[in-house]
Design goal:
This protein has about 400 residues and is an alpha+beta fold. It has three domains: about 80 residues, no CATH class; about 110 residues, Butyryl-CoA Dehydrogenase, subunit A, domain 2, CATH 2.40.110.10; about 150 residues, Butyryl-CoA Dehydrogenase, subunit A, domain 3, CATH 1.20.140.10. The chain is about 40% helix and about 15% strand. It is built from twelve helices and ten strands. It has a four-stranded mixed beta sheet. Strands 2-3-7-6 form a four-stranded antiparallel beta sheet, with no helix packed on it. The protein has a two-stranded antiparallel ribbon with strand order 9-10. β6 and β7 form a beta hairpin. α7 runs parallel beside α9 and α9 packs across α10. The longest helix is centred in the last third of the chain and has 29 residues. It is globular, with a radius of gyration of 22 Å. Bound molecules: flavin-adenine dinucleotide. The site of flavin-adenine dinucleotide has 20 residues, from β1, β3 and α11.
Length: about 400
């Protein structure tokens, strides 16, 4: 087995084309700031428009089918694009990316044209409207209701922690359609247009910034063709979303900027006539950080490769999600040991190393433990899939396993 990427001449030319284009078209002051949740309005508007151009070039959602507005490219192309986007500090898209696989697997042809195509072209943006104040890890206990009224549906309820800096045009939400049906067979998944009459958004300030929201639904009327899948199939549809969110697609290019900066700090910072890497304790801490980050990188790439090769996935997604959540918090702890108080200096502090990136990491590693299934929930999923739980489960269908075109 060979873990090294070998790019062909055509792929290297493709890389050069992207690099040159980005150098010409991305002004320096528009590059993604260290604290991405603190985008200025000007930066946000620039990337919202630039995203449409990148989508038209096929680079934004590169592996999704061309017929729906994706790039129709391969995983190798996506890897190159992500590497170059990272170097140029591109902010790629604003839709929660798990919406695309969900629509690819479950939407009918008309719905793909209506929802998927404008999302892949970045004419529209979507968010994921699942969590409620009383239903997070135990999502199936949600309370929000959808009631049929002629051809329409009337929605009522409350959702929370809904992520997204952009104001979404669609909220992909789970609602009870049949309160008498058994758990997991009583839900529908809907594309809720925003704005809609009776739908109110209120921002929540999290540790990482101001990009999360409450949504309140008071008799929101939506058309019948906004139901994705059957009116009792919402749980199954949402499992596709969660499969991807739980790491089931892996990552083409899992770069760890916090680790790179930490190692740079150890190499460059001098104390008592030596670089601090000469201190045996700091050296051990830095090496632990390095090893954990590399293990996560391998899990991500393995999953990406399995997904692209349409291999059957089981515990693999949750294994990488779990490892990612734990190692980031542990590495934030190691960064505090190595940088001391400097790790807590934010982006506005002139003496903050790496423009305050380590302080952003301290906060994001904490909030990152929750979305897309907590640490404990990832273990529950893995246990079910390797057969050491009360219940057994298999991975939900994804574009990879369902055999649809575009992964
Ligand atoms: C930054 C951020 C972004 C988010 N973005 C979105 C979004 O875009 N859309 C959306 O719908 N939601 C979003 N969420 C919500 C997220 O999905 C929930 O926070 C998550 O599912 C956990 O739910 P909870 O917060 O209600 O915690 P709870 O479910 O109340 O869990 C509390 C604790 O109990 C533990 N626990 C719960 N059940 C078990 C169990 N069976 N076994 C062992 N331990 C258990 C948990 O691990 C956790 O430690 C976001 C959350 C955050 C923090």
């Amino acid at each position: 087995m060979d873990f090294t990427y070998h790019y062909t001449k055509e792929q290297e030319e493709f890389r050069q084309e992207i690099r040159t284009w980005l150098e010409r078209n991305i002004p320096k002051d528009m590059r993604a700031p260290v604290d991405r949740s603190a985008l200025t309005d000007e930066q946000f508007n620039f990337w919202r428009e630039m995203g449409k151009t990148l989508a038209a070039k096929g680079w934004l959602y590169s592996t999704y089918p061309k017929e729906y507005g994706g790039g129709g490219l391969t995983g190798a192309h996506e890897t190159i694009i992500m590497e170059e986007f990272d170097k140029a500090r591109v902010i790629a898209g604003f839709t929660i990316s798990y919406v695309f696989p969900t629509l690819l697997v479950w939407a009918n042809e008309e719905q793909k044209e209506k929802f998927l195509t404008p999302l892949l072209k970045l004419e529209k943006v979507a968010s994921q409207l699942f969590t409620e104040p009383g239903a997070g890890s135990d999502l199936a206990s949600l309370q929000s209701r959808a009631v049929r009224d002629g051809d329409d549906w009337i929605l009522n309820g409350q959702k929370t922690f809904i992520g997204g800096r952009a104001v979404a045009d669609y909220l992909m939400g789970l609602f009870i359609t049949d309160p008498d049906a058994p758990r997991h067979r009583n839900l529908g998944l809907f594309m809720v247009p925003f704005p809609s009459e009776g739908l109110e958004q209120r921002r929540i300030k999290l540790l990482t910034g101001n990009d999360s929201s409450f949504y309140f639904l008071d008799n929101v009327r939506i058309p019948g063709d906004h139901l994705i899948g059957g009116d009792h199939q919402g749980w199954q549809v949402a499992q596709t979303t969660l499969e991807i969110e739980h790491g089931g697609r892996g990552a083409a290019f899992p770069r760890d900027e916090a680790l790179e900066n930490l190692l740079k700090y150890v190499r460059q910072t001098e104390y008592d006539g030596h670089t601090i890497g000469a201190d045996p304790i700091l050296q051990q801490r830095a090496m632990e950080a390095f090893i954990d980050s590399k293990i996560f990188n391998l899990y991500s790439k393995r999953n990406y490769w399995m997904y692209q090769a349409r291999q059957e996935m089981s515990y693999h997604g949750s294994q990488s999600a779990l490892y990612g959540k734990v190692f980031r918090m542990t590495n934030a702890d190691r960064a505090r040991d190595i940088l001391g108080m400097y790790s807590l200096l934010g982006v506005r502090e002139p003496r903050a190393p790496f423009g305050g990136q380590q302080e952003v990491y301290q906060r994001s590693s904490l909030t990152g433990a929750h979305p897309g299934g907590t640490i404990e929930v990832q273990k529950v999923i893995m246990a079910r899939r390797i057969g050491i739980s009360r219940t057994r489960e298999r991975a939900a269908p994804t574009p990879s396993s369902a055999g649809v075109s575009g992964v």
